[in-house]
Structures are given as C-alpha cells and as structure tokens.
Amino acid sequence: MFSIEDDDKANRGIINNFPSVPSPYLNFDPQLLPQSSQPEYIFLEGAGSKQRGRFELSFTQIGTSCLIGATIGGIRGIYSGIKLTSMENQTSTYNRTQILNSVFKNGARLANTFGTLSVYYSIFGIILEKTRGCEDELNTIVAGTSTGLLYKSTSGLRRCGIGGLIGFSLATAFSLVTSRDKIKEIGKSILHS
Amino acid sequence: MEEFGREPCPTRILEDLGGAFAMGLIGGGIFQGIKGFRNAPTGFNRRFNGAFHSIATKAPNIGGSFAVWGGLFSTIDCSLVAIRKKEDPWNSIASGALTGGILAARNGIPAMTASAVFGGLLLAMIEGFGLFFMHMSAEQFRPQPPVFEDPTNNANNTNMF
C-alpha cells in the first residue's frame, strides 16, 4: 500500500502518475475499473436486464414524431394561411381566423400521419423484438420496410412498393448512422485479417 | 400510482403524448372498424372495404385528438410541478381543468367553462380512485402490533404455587 509520507521514489512515481486521484486512500489506477463507452444503467433488483426494450421507448418515439409532425405542419399552415389571406382584402379578424384554421388543419394532418407511421413502426418493432428475442439493426430495417408497405397498402401495388422502398431506405440510413462504430470495427477486422 | 415507473418531467410530455396517440389510434381503429362494418352496404366484401376505409380515414384523427389532450395535459402538469415544486393530485386536477378549458378556447366562454369543469371532474375522479385503491392496498402492509405477555402475571402465578 502507498502512503503520502512514503519517500520511496517508486511509490511517488506511481502516485504522481495519477493526478486525478483525490485522496491517497483512493490511489489505484482508474483504468482498473471496468471501462465502457456506453452509459451504465442501474436496474431494479430482480427486474431483469432487458428493462428498456422497444416497448418502453415506443411511447416516447410516437410522441416525438407527433410533435415533429405538428411543428412542420403548423409552419406550413402559417405559410399557406398568410399566402391565402394576403390575396384577399379582408378584416384582420377574418385573416386571423383563416390563418389559425390553416395552422390547425395542416398541423393536425401531418401530426396524424407522422404519429400513425410511428405507431406502425413501433408495433412491428415490438413484434420483431419479441419473436426474434434480440434487438439489432435487422429489426429496424424490417420494421421500417413493413411500415412503408402497410401505410401505402390501400393505394395500389406501385405506391405500396414505393412506400416500402422509402421505409427501407430511411431505416437503412438510420441504422447506418447509429451503428457507425460497429461498421468501422467490422471493416477493420476485414482489413486486418 | 406507479410514480417510480414513469419518466422524469420533460420527457414525460412526449411519453404521454405518444401513449395517448397510440391508445386513440388503436382504440379508435377498433371502434371505427366495427362502425364501418355495420354501416356499409350488404355483402361481405363491401362491409370489409367499408370497415377498412373507415379505419384508414378516421382512426388517425381520433388518435390525434387523444394526443392533443394527453400532450397538453402533461405539459400543464409538468409546468405546475415546476412552479409549485411538488407533485400531488391537485396538479392533475388543475391541469385536467385547464386542458379542457384551453382546448375549447375557440368555442366561447360557456363552452370553455363546461369543458374545464368536465376535465377537472374527470381527473378528480381518476385521482380519487387512485388514492382510494392506494389506501386499500396499503392496509395489508400495516405492521401488526406485537403481543407481549405480562411478565408480572407469570411471576404472581409462580408465587401462588
């Protein structure tokens, strides 16, 4: 054990190597602790390690996409409302009502679309996660593709295919962005072998 | 009741919004499906088409109105928590009333009042039931008072013999 009064050069050297150690009683190498780049969560005892799967995240996802849809739709509504009212010479009360109507209509429509898509995606994702018993990029891609297919399934085979393609490309792009590190590691291992 | 199972406040708005939307979409989908099936002309294909059309056009709107309620309610709830620095049933009741009032804001003062009273009563009922069941379930965890025998009695008994 090292102590602060120790004049031993070797010990001093070791202590000085750890400038971040706050107290001589804690003079161990912080690198001995388990290192991980991911955040470490504390789970309730006996609750199992799979506490936050897709189901727990789904409501937040749906809410976020609804809110994004409402925001985009609202901005579009303001734009189209102002464009509509600026053409006709009416009172300001009329203009205000018209713009508000436009904002509510557009916002609600886009929020509904986004939210519905997100609900489909979450349902497919949860089903895939539960049936396959694991959580990876394949789930994301399959869920995205089937969401696109289902959403456009009423409007003809061609549009259905286009919807599926859009869903597939979005999901693939998302997985590529989120799992950059994994892809880098795979690439490194291929290069080194 | 399960406060520990919920998200902390800013994220809770999104969670409530999403939960309300999902509930409205799925519940409204089932309801509208039955309604469209019943209201369509005869023939199984037509009934099926009617149900499908009705779900596709009306379920997202129901989900949207649920989401507006849930999101606004949660936003006001969180704001009240931030302002009052405590979480209690009054927050929920007040935010239910305010949500009802705000959502009816374009229909005039009487409609706003009615809607606010309705929202407040609804949330008061929900919170009341929650508290009631919490008290019911807390009864079984009440610690039993331990029963001790009086040592003086014993001493008296031994002395008698």
TrEMBL record, chain A:
InterPro entries: Tim23-like (IPR045238). GO terms for cellular component: TIM23 mitochondrial import inner membrane translocase complex. This is Mitochondrial import inner membrane translocase subunit Tim23. It is found in: Membrane. GO terms for biological process: protein import into mitochondrial matrix. It holds the Pfam family Tim17. It comes from the Eukaryota. GO terms for molecular function: protein transmembrane transporter activity. It is a multi-pass membrane protein. Its main location: membrane. Keywords: Membrane, Transmembrane, Transmembrane helix. The gene is LOC112682760. It comes from Sipha flava (yellow sugarcane aphid).
Automatic annotation (TrEMBL), chain B:
One of its GO terms (cellular component) is TIM23 mitochondrial import inner membrane translocase complex. It is found in: Mitochondrion inner membrane. Its main location: mitochondrion. The keyword Ion transport does not apply. It holds the Pfam family Tim17. It comes from Sipha flava (yellow sugarcane aphid). Belongs to the Tim17/Tim22/Tim23 family. This is Mitochondrial import inner membrane translocase subunit Tim17-B. Essential component of the TIM23 complex, a complex that mediates the translocation of transit peptide-containing proteins across the mitochondrial inner membrane.
